[in-house]
Amino acid sequence: MKEPTDFPILYSLRNCPYAMRARLGIFKSKQRVIIRDIVLSNKPDEMITASSKGEVPVLVVSPSLVIDQSLDVMLWAFNESDPNDLLHRQDEAILTEMLTLIAQFDTGFKTAFDKYSSAKRYHDENVDQYRQNCEVYIQALEQRLNEHAFLMSENESLADLAILPFIRKFARVERKWYLQSPYPKLRAWLNNYLQSALFSKVMKDYPLWLESKEVIIFGDK
Known about the structure:
Layout: E1 9-12, H1 17-28, E2 32-37, H2 45-50, E3 58-62, E4 65-67, H3 70-80, H4 92-121, H5 127-147, H6 158-173, H7 175-180, H8 184-194, H9 197-202, H10 209-212, E5 217-219
Parallel strand pairs: 1-2
Antiparallel strand pairs: 1-3, 2-5, 3-4
Helix pairs in contact: 1-3, 1-6, 4-5, 4-6, 5-8
């Protein structure tokens, strides 16, 4: 049996969607890691040494294996253990489609969302146009959810977990508009996650590691 100090180390930030994505993958894969919560204004030297990017998530699996891209953390976790077949291994074409969909959100949607969020924050008169740019991607998800319970099929997948943190952020920019928007399937899909025990565990608030130096184990037992 592993000692706690033998587990990989995950540097995380509670509300960062990329760190959230990594935690979701680790939890659903039933991996266990030492979690170190940080704030970006006070980054641990250990994290910078492991990854000079200085951004979360950073997963230190071993001295020779450091993963600092959120999707790569998820893929590492599910390649270690995928009890719910979230990679849909029975159909290689679906995995390719999933990765393409996630890439669209990591590039196109993220760019549109950043402009939308900023426009709302600074009362830009073009906020409606920026929101509509996001809706191109939102509409595509709604169509998928009209066809099946999850984004890829009737079963949950990597794509659901990878995209979830960004839809959560989108839903919060203009809450009143979102609740009345023509995306009922998306709202139900998101609410199903936000009200789940999974989400509560993934979003648990931990003491900052630099202040506590506690060894905290994160993951599904």
